[in-house]
Amino acid sequence: MALKYESESETVKDSILGTYGRDEISFVRGKGASVWDVDGREYVDMVAGIAVNCLGHNHPRLVAAICNQASSIMHTSNLYQIENQSRLASRLASHLPGSGWKTFFSNSGAEANEAALKFAIKSTGRRKILSAHNSFHGRTALTLSVTGQPKYWKGFEHLLYKDVSFADYGSPDSFQKILDDDVACVILEPVQGEGGVILPPEGFLSEVGKMAKENGSLLIMDEVQTGVGRTGRFFAHSWEAGVKPDIVTMAKALGGGVPIGATIFSGEVAACVTAGDHGSTFGGNPLSTAAANAVLDIIDSPGFLDGACARGAMLLNGLKQVFAGTPYVADVRGRGMMIGVEMDEKSAQAFKSFAFERGFLVNIAHGKVVRLVPPLVLGEPEISAFLGMASSFAASRMQ
Ligand SMILES: Cc1ncc(COP(=O)(O)O)c(C=O)c1O
Q: Which atom belonging to ligand 1 lies closest to the Cα atom of 225?
């Protein structure tokens, strides 16, 4: 299919740096969990801008908050007080236990993690970072260094921070072996997203957190993909009792589509920071923090996440039934609205095309995992329709 833009100009496409393998389609409108292409064809969006559009598209309260803020003042810089930013920081802190949490605002997940790692090193006075194989933490030099997927390092090896070790996600022993008195921090995703929706075994996060603490190392929870209710709780690490991060990072869904990153530091870590240590021109400006506050108004409203969690379970269980006993599906897993269907590579691509032809957008993570990270407002009728489509795919494979 030829790519169509409203402008129909090929130069538009040709001028984009080729960092992404893009599908030949562009969307011009969205509402709820649906998007429409240039020809007016509707798709149910199970990608949500890679786990970003948590409220779906064009949520009226988010749109109103952005428009209102834009019509008064959009950007002032961090040289001045920003009321929306202070309010957002205290609301984020209220989702973590205890007090003293302080937030640094940026514009993306990589920036949120970069700040976390820099201040983990500064506050402990140690050099080493411990991360997990198969992890993803971003594309800046430092966050790339702690991303446990060597394919992303190619061509940039000389940029990588040297004092990084990797252990096996899910194995506390593997972390214990590497922890020594020069490890500043352990950075972990509560569910590995880009790595193929990998859930840790029960007890893993708390056990590694405990080991880190005993070793004087900090625990960084990378909630960039999982935060803001993706798994049915505001923070995915809170599914496990006793996980006590020192630093939590967020981005993606926090602005509901407006770029914003956040790094939340415990008071103890925050104490090492002095003015000028770090910064961001745009981070937490009045516009992005107005958007994030509007997102939290909805996400924190009573019953919202419980509903999303229940509908996520409906989708997960439905998919388990559809693919039970099929030879090309290795696993169906997930939590809340974060679901992975692991297939062989060819079947995953075939499923993506089959879904697309029937009006559903899905994404493939790690080459072979159909990743579903839909808007949290995805409704039961859309879930039933998706399951119907998945059943047709399974039936077509039996012929
Ligand atoms: C867990 C995690 N951390 C960090 C990032 C990087 O975020 P960004 O692309 O906003 O820099 C991602 C992006 O997919 C992610 O999933």
A: 16
